[in-house]
Amino acid sequence: MAAPKRAGDALMQCRTHRTSARSANKGNPFWRCGLVMCILPFVMFPAAAHPLRRHSELDRINAQLQGRVLDFTHNHGSDNRFWSPALQKKRDMYVYLPPGFEPCKQYPLMLWLHGLAEDEFTFLHDVIRPLDRAIASGRLPPLIVAAPDGSIRGKDCLSSSGSFFLNSEAGRFEDYLMVDVWNFVISRFPIRPERDAHTILGVSLGGAAAYNKAIKFSACFRHVVGLFPPLNLRWQDCHGNYHGNFDPNCWGWRTDFVHRRTVLAHFYGIPIRLRLLLDPLYSRRNPETLPAIIRNNPTEMLDLYDVQPGQLDMYVAYGGKDQFNVDAHVESFLFVARQRCLKVDIGYDPNGKHNRRTAEKLLPDIIDWLAPRLAPFAPDSSAVIVPPP
If one looks up domain 46-377 in CATH, what number appears? Predict the structure, then answer.
């Protein structure tokens, strides 16, 4: 079968496959944007590595794992990146192989999508060790995990915003994910072809992207997980307040994406404004901005794609004190899902925030939710999943 060239073709294939120096002027908005991009990873995820990545970092982490992370990046001294026809450039990705990997056997697949102001390196530092421990202990069945870079310029988060894995003015990032990454992983690794063996999981804006792709490409994925994902990109209350708590009787839809000074959150007194997210994707006067956001808004996609009960296994994990008000996003999504009789399983920390500590508290329940769903597709499907202590 010929490799698809666009994400729309990838959907059909899934169905048939089953298979900078800092500016001296500190009032300059570009300097402020760069400062925000610089501190966000260290505030939101303090354990993230310094951007000057040591060449030996991958070897050090692999020495701590029972499985192994393969390097398709330019992070560790040699250029192992893969070519993306959609973006017309090389891109970074890590691929994790589980303990006891045997190339003659087939494994479930997980795509892991990072959030804003991050790239694939976050997977190496914050994600792979707990996943590897869960697999090695028998709590999670063996699976292959692909963690592609979704930053716009293919560089670290200090100099590039997030693509949300969408086709936009920034580039064909949906085609990159659902064609280039998908074909690379499927063609090079022994992946089970059934959609029931495929999971897509994302953190923060990567969680919104995971839901977007699971709904749009439901022939490819059965299971979707979002960890504090903004699932309603047009959320505001009936007073036009982005920070309002969810109330089904006081709900508005944002339609103005020209004025982008809305503050989404504050970190150490620095405002994170809407323009930081949108400007790289859609120019301020682009008439297609609102229609594109509607088409790609997970809450509205439930209706647009007529998602049916049982079509997807969905899990969302979030905190009640999220700095970005993601709890309102999630709860408005859940409201619409219930109206459509869709089941969404929930992990909730009432005191949780949009940070690494909350993610660590919520991750064990995500693993326990995934385990029985992927166990039938493990190489040894008779293996018993060890329940948590």
Answer: 3.40.50.1820
As a whole-number percent, the residues of the chain with pLDDT over 90 amount to 74
Q: Quick: pLDDT tens for 229-277.
A: 999 999 999 999 999 999 999 999 999 999 999 998 876 678 888 988 8
Work out the average pLDDT over 105-128.
Answer: 93
What is the residue whose two structure tokens read 């809407």? 274
pLDDT digits (tens, 9 = 90+) for 69-86: 999 999 998 999 999 999
